[in-house]
Write a structure and sequence with these properties.
single chain; Alpha-Beta Plaits; alpha/beta; 13 helices; Rossmann fold; 26% strand; globular; 27% helix
Length: 449
């Protein structure tokens, strides 16, 4: 399958990096020759210099009816025109189009019937992700499956957690009426699939499955209880910062800092309860005057990694309880260990949303959990085929899976079922599967073809 990526920015470059390791023929198009040269040197991909909305440029990229277009430039109009040309002139197989302006989502037909097959909005995904983390204190990562009914949550085990120093089976003793399943534990950076006898240790990174309603009590099993947050400070009044403030200002005390005076005037008119401040988030006197020591979460959401890192470093030193930042270059983390509690890599969320639409199997969700290790979680729908037919009516534990792969949840008729030795596989089951290494995914996908 050929995939043509339009735009070699952060998102396009990340897509190229992740997809070049798969069995796809990759071509990336951009006007910036230096970006293309860098990508071509690092990955086995083809590059074409030129505008993504230019007919001749698209022709050079080799579009045909088996091609999938990923239009992810920073310009909505360029992405739309590129999709129109790709469909009408080259009859491509599928178009995935990035939109910064989400008002287009409800009006896709105005561009022509079937022109945009799948719209995506990285900014909306980031905002939704941040809201989940703010809602659930103690959680470091929250991923949704089964249309939000099932959550895969990451939590760092702390000394005061009830289960630390005890066997994992103790979670059922502590909470007999709560359904939870621990999918994986990362210990000193190494993943393993635990058993009931596994002893939880301090600083273990635990991934568990539950319903949203049960996230709080389960998190408290692994760390000391954290009260609900109430005071939020946001740095950056761009789309993500503005959207987050607008969505949470009814339930939280929100302050938003932006360095652009005109932008601040606009934000003040659009936001109801949020206090908008014009200034620099690295201005110590400003943070002190706004009682940074009383802030529960400091969210640095600008487009500049250095601003996000340095402002978070300062906020943490001045007493902010937790820091969350947008970070495009994770190498910054090594410079300030311990001062950034949670970082959101926009490309991880976008690549995840795109991957599920590229798979040839019936996947409802494909989530990259850890970019550096290749850990993924997928939700697939079981179909009858040569591989699955002999397994129907037999316990799911009989399903042959590679090492480091585990079935962590079953959704049947909309209901969440935790894995056990008595649960049997049935047609159309939705299986949530954890993979410590994404290279094993082809062996798992046979369940969903």
């Amino acid at each position: 399958m050929k995939i043509v990526i339009l735009g070699a920015g952060r998102i396009g470059g990340s897509l190229a990096r992740n997809l070049s390791n798969s069995n796809y023929e990759i071509c990336i198009v951009d006007v910036n020759k230096n970006k293309l040269s860098d990508l071509e040197d690092r990955f086995d991909i083809m590059t074409v210099e030129g505008s993504a909305s230019d007919l001749n440029t698209l022709k050079k990229s080799g579009l045909n009816k088996d091609t999938i277009i990923l239009a992810v430039t920073s310009n909505d109009e360029v992405n739309i025109v590129a999709c129109q040309i790709a469909k009408k002139v080259f009859d491509v197989k599928k178009t995935i189009c990035r939109f910064k302006d989400d008002s287009y989502f409800e009006k896709l037909d105005i561009f022509g019937e079937g022109i945009v097959d799948i719209p995506i909005s990285p900014e909306n995904e980031i905002t939704s992700y941040l809201k989940e983390l703010i809602k659930h204190p103690g959680a470091n990562q929250i991923e949704s499956f089964a249309n939000g009914k099932v959550k895969l949550v990451s939590v760092k085990a702390k000394r005061k957690g009830k289960l630390v120093g005890r066997e994992l089976r103790g979670i059922k003793e502590d909470m007999p009426n709560v359904d939870a399943f621990v999918a994986c534990i990362y210990r000193k950076g190494n993943p393993f699939i635990p058993s009931g006898e596994t002893i939880i240790k301090e600083n273990d990174e635990v991934y568990f499955i539950s319903s949203e309603f049960d996230i709080g009590p389960i998190v408290d099993e692994f760390r000391d209880h954290e009260d609900q947050y109430s005071r939020i400070m946001i740095v950056g009044g761009g789309k993500v910062g503005f959207s987050l403030a607008k969505d949470i200002e009814k339930d939280y005390n929100v302050k938003l800092i932006d360095s652009n005076n005109e932008r601040c005037k606009h934000l003040s008119k659009e936001l109801n309860k949020t206090i908008v401040l014009n200034g620099s988030a690295t201005d110590e006197s400003l943070l002190k005057s706004e009682n940074i020591a009383n802030i529960d979460i400091f969210c640095a959401l600008t487009n500049d990694d250095e601003t996000n890192v340095m402002s978070s470093l300062l906020a943490k030193k001045m007493g902010a309880k937790k820091t969350m930042i947008i970070l495009n270059n994770p190498s910054y983390l090594g410079l300030v260990p311990g001062f950034i509690d949670i970082y959101i890599a926009p490309y991880r969320l976008t690549v995840s949303s795109v991957l599920q639409d590229l798979r040839e199997s019936d996947l409802a969700q494909d989530v990259i959990l850890k970019v550096n290790t290749g850990a993924e979680a997928i939700e697939g729908i079981v179909h009858a085929n040569e591989f699955t037919s002999p397994l129907f009516g037999k316990p799911i534990k009989n399903i042959p899976l590679p090492e480091g792969v585990a079935i962590v949840a079953i959704i049947r008729h909309g209901e969440l079922i935790m894995p056990s030795s008595t649960i049997e596989l049935t047609l159309n089951d939705h299986l949530v599967i954890f993979l410590s290494n994404k290279n094993n995914i082809s062996e798992v996908e046979v369940l969903f073809k």
